[in-house]
Amino acid sequence: MSTPTSATTPTTTSGATWTNWGRNQTCHPAEVVVPRDVDELRATLARAHTRGIPVRAVGSGHSFAPVAVTDGLQLRLDHLAGTTAFDAEAARVTVGAGTPLHVLNPALQALGLALPNLGDIDRQTISGAISTGTHGSGLRRQGIASAVVGLTLALADGSLLRCSADVEPEVFAAARVGLGALGVITEVELQCVPAFRVHAKEFTADLAEVLATVDDDVRAHDHVDMHWFPHTPRVLVKHNDDVGADDPGRVLPAWREKLDDDVLSNGFFELVNRVATRAPRIVPRLAQVTARTLSDREFTGDSWRVFCSPRRVRFREMEYAVPLTSFVPVVTELRAWIDSHDVSLPFPVELRFTGADDIWLSTAHERDNAYVAVHQYHRLDDGGVFAAFEAIVAEHAGRPHWGKLHTLGADQLRALYPRFDDFRIVRDRLDPDRTFTSDHVRHLLGD
Ligand SMILES: Cc1cc2nc3c(=O)[nH]c(=O)nc-3n(C[C@H](O)[C@H](O)[C@H](O)COP(=O)(O)OP(=O)(O)OC[C@H]3O[C@@H](n4cnc5c(N)ncnc54)[C@H](O)[C@@H]3O)c2cc1C
Questions:
Q1: Residues 355, 188: Cα–Cα separation, whole Å
Q2: What is the tally of structural domains in the chain?
């Protein structure tokens, strides 16, 4: 560890109101600091620590859970962005903590590289994405944090601590999905793969059919991502398979991409949701219409362009990871609950799969997972579905996505994560004075 030597004056504001993307979390940080470089960050931390002010780093505010919320000092790392080192032979790239994925992905492509997997969108920062265990789909792939081979934390006193599998391995096991509770990540080293393209095949299917063949399907394809429309049996199935960087395949015409992404997934879908808000009772009929607008398509594109799409219709989301064997019972129980209750869900339920990893607080810690994600339009009440869904997954060792809605606290989380207390030991060592805390973090970690 090294300690800061200078105190400079970063951009500081106070009294600002912060709201997340889903518009369900708001806070009024006492101070917002946007350090221009690592030295300013270190000096800011040292000052906050001396004064006993709690600190939370924030990324792009795309978490639905209050993980980034603070009434203390909010740190925005917009200036710690971009590539700081590149090892061509090892295919490793080091990037600033505040680098957004939509900047990272084309930058990697320019180097002939890519991340092995991505989630649905690219608006998150790399640090925000890994800190909550952001994932895409693919049983032979892991979440984004698994691509991290090293990272640097700025600790509460302003000192820096680098960790990797060889250096501070316990910190490394904890900090890749660290909930912002150990320190502020300043940079991340990523193990990339050669740039690749993805062949996408999208079609609609019946939910019963999907559940009957899911075990084979998730093993037959690199990435299986499905959207089931509640109140209907319709599922949009996406079978995505990696192909080489030089495989041109069939490119989606620009007009079709625009129709699907801008009109059907965003413009038309926003309209459907506004109608649903005014007349929730017609949602089951609306869902039939929405499901029918989906048509089959097959195309090939750069991996990051295929994985990520624009999401402009705002929603709230709860997502749980369950063991693969629980996938069919969980979806079946959720469907039965929705069908037997007066609830209006215009948004699809997303179904994904990833392979196990070794990160202590990763939802995929030593377990292959199915992910089931329930969404609700941000202007509509959830009608009790989130609580019902939590009760269902509680019977299946469901682990909540750290960035999405859930109510679990330390006692329940300890039972779900075998290394939970090891994480707390690392936290006791790195942040004994609890600088990186909040009500939510205390609820999650127990103090
Ligand atoms: C439209 C939409 C689509 C989504 N799609 C997916 C998906 O496909 N898959 C998936 O798994 N999730 C998905 N998410 C969830 C999202 O990826 C996570 O919530 C992610 O954490 C958001 O990243 P962010 O940069 O906005 O971080 P924030 O939400 O701002 O922060 C998240 C956490 O990271 C911490 N943090 C941020 N920067 C640092 C730092 N430098 N050092 C230490 N801690 C830090 C914060 O303190 C906080 O605890 C989606 C969310 C939305 C709104």
A1: 22
A2: 1
Does residue 242 belong to any structural domain of this protein? yes
- 108 lies in some domain: no
Dihedral-angle region of residue 382 (phi above 0 means left; psi in -120 to 50 means alpha; beta otherwise): alpha
SS3 329: helix
User: Is the pLDDT confidence value at 142 over 70?
Assistant: yes
CATH number, domain containing residue 324: 3.40.462.10
Does ligand 1 lie within 6 Å of residue 137's CB atom? no
Mean model confidence pLDDT for the chain: 93
Quote the ligand 1 centre to 445 CA distance (angstroms): 18
E strand segments, 136-222: 148-154, 160-164, 184-191, 193-194, 197-206
Containing 292, the helix (H) or strand (E) segment is: helix 283-293
Which residue range forms the structural domain that includes residue 345?
A: 197-400
In a domain, 291, yes or no: yes
The yes-or-no verdict on residue 1 having pLDDT over 70 is no
Q: Which of 335, 428, 431 is nearest to 374 (CA)?
A: 335
- In this structure, is residue 131 part of a structural domain? no
- 130 CB near ligand 1 (under 6 Å): no
CA of 134 to the centre of ligand 1 (A): 7
β pairing state of 73-76 and 55-58? parallel
Q: Ligand 1: does its nearest atom lie under 6 Å from the Cβ of 32?
A: no
Helix (H) or strand (E) holding 92: strand 92-96
